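BUG: 3D viewer hangs when loading the predicted structure for this chain

Environment: internal workstation, default settings.
Expected: structure renders.
Actual: progress bar stalls at 90%.

Input used:
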Amino acid sequence: MDNKTVIIVGPGKVGSSLFLAMRQDSAYRVYLAGHKPLFPEFARLIPDGTYIELGKKMYVQNPDVLIFAVPDDAIKSAAETLLPFCTSRSLAVHTSGALDSSQLEALKSRGVRTGSWHPLQTFSKAFLTESIWRGISTTFEGDNEAELFIRNLCGHLGCRLIRINRRQKLALHIASVFSANFLPALLSAGQSILQEEGFVPEQGKKLLLPLMRQSLKNVEENPPEKALSGPLQRADIGTLQRHIEFLLQKNMAELAEVYRLLSKLLAEDMRFNINSREQVIQWLKKG
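Structure tokens produced before the viewer hung:
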């Protein structure tokens, strides 16, 4: 594969981490670009001459590939900013999980092959090492030529690529929010409940995180019918009622409703083994 000149637009968590990973491979001449100067603690992490401050003199002409790792509402404007520096031989992708390749229509109308490429990974901070990419799944939607480049890139990064359509992309993003983004909210809810009885947040975290890890391990290693435990699975309606009453007494009506709705979701899922399922569902519906 010929060396490709790649500009990653957006020095945030995803863009900067991708930059570091691609810098490890001689197949790419990679640059990082943003509208503002990098903070000094980040600037020293990248070689001189590899950061482009947009709005100033553009010293990289006709890039082979543009990767937009910017907030969703900035993709279109970022694409328009880089439009004068592209040719019909260029490729462009963005990394949004929620939006499809139509966000790059300004480039596509000029002959640029476009796509949306989303890593199913959480990036907790900027400039993470290349190991953050290994073994993860990524998805692609868009033109075949852009897919070929991304497929080769995934081979270098050590991650998987799954081609999806636009409807699947939206569904997958929603599913990812439920499966990953809501986990911190559930932990925070648990800590808040414990605070009502005198536990400090750090104590709650230490108590609850091992339970969360074991639950994920159970789901990973067991079929659904063996992955669930607790009062709902046992149909212990008395305990479920005491839990909801406690939350209501503590003026946590929203958490009480979340508790009921999540319990109902589990009870109605036929993949899980719930004792006295219909009785449990009827009780939850009354709530």
